[in-house]
Amino acid sequence: MRPSRPVFLLLAATLVAASPATAAVPERAAGSGRPCVASPPPRGGEAREALDIAQRVKSEQHLNSVLVRVTKDGEEVLTTGLGQSMTGVPARPGMHFRAGSVAIVHMGIVLLQLVDEKKARLDDPLSRWLPGAPHADEITLRMLGGSTSGLHDYVTDPKFLAALEAAPFRHWTPEELVAYPAAHPLWYEPGTGWSYSHANFVLLGAALEKISGTPLDELLQQRVMGPLGLADTRNSFTPEIQPPVLHAFTEERGLYEESTFWNPSWTTAPGAVIATHICDLARSAEAVGTGELLSPAAFRTQLDPGTVGLGGGTKTCPATVCLKNTAAEHFGLGVLVMNGWILTNPSFSGYAAVQAYLPAERLAIAVATTKGKGTPDGNTAQAIMNGIAEALAPGHPAPGGH
Prior knowledge:
Blueprint: H1 45-60, E1 63-72, E2 75-86, E3 89-90, E4 97-98, H2 102-116, H3 141-146, H4 158-166, H5 174-182, H6 198-212, H7 216-228, E5 234-235, E6 249-250, E7 257-258, E8 274-276, H8 278-290, H9 296-303, E9 329-331, E10 336-338, E11 341-344, E12 347-348, E13 351-358, E14 363-371, H10 380-392
Antiparallel strand pairs: 1-2, 1-14, 2-3, 4-8, 5-8, 6-7, 9-10, 10-11, 11-13, 12-13, 13-14
Helix pairs in contact: 1-10, 2-6, 2-7, 2-9
């Protein structure tokens, strides 16, 4: 099992699902009370263009399934499911999958809310909340959220990767995860560079619990999922996921096998290992992209907490790790900002997804995919999202191109 290298267009995070579909209750579209089901087959227009792109990429990349939802001004353009979850089981929009780094975006929102409420400051040292954490006196909350702490990413540590590949069902504790970057020197002085690290968000989740006095799963529900009406976005402390489930398969360990039930505990902080469906994912894209849950000042900080201009290779950090952040393409507070799009794109073990919002066109695109035999490496959902973006917003470059 090899988590993808964390770069701007492929932040390694989890998309694990579990439990076979055992319920036939329709899943609701986010905040609407309506079922999350496929829209009528389009005959033309933007919906037809988006569907054609999804079908083409599914065929070209040998995908098992594709789920897509596109909205403009909050109104549905297209909702569809293509392919199969399992043999003989059609993929449907209401099926649930792990949403990986989407929860990182939500944690960033909660941090900014707590700062606005003066319960913490972005530049508080981590030692105020987690005195036993690595480099706690040097690393601040801002550095965790913006990924400028200098901590190594444990998913690139060969020892961690070997342990993960050998036992994909293993449950990992935060202490076990953070021990890997703690065993390495920092890439750079905290706050002076940029490098993605899952450890940042394991620590941020623990800090949010300390600041708020509330378990992280409850905190995210109270401050993000509840207010946005994301009734089908839920944390799980085990690999189980609410049915109906979108199943996944992968060749990452050398044979084609089901990865639906692999344990996602390594991916982020306990309490933020969420599952969702495509309608909730599109609603999340809209809310994140408009700053719906934040003050205007906090939203500006989310889009650039000081990361623009940071990064780039140095004598102590290679350019493949310390990526250059520019005004056009940079990491915000848990979110990617690319060519005017605000997005995140988790990918893990046969699953991939993307939630993206373009404020200039009030366009939201949510895509989830599962791999088939021969599917190439990379975030296959991103390829579909980019194609739809180029068709529906031709004046705005798709994030990173194809």
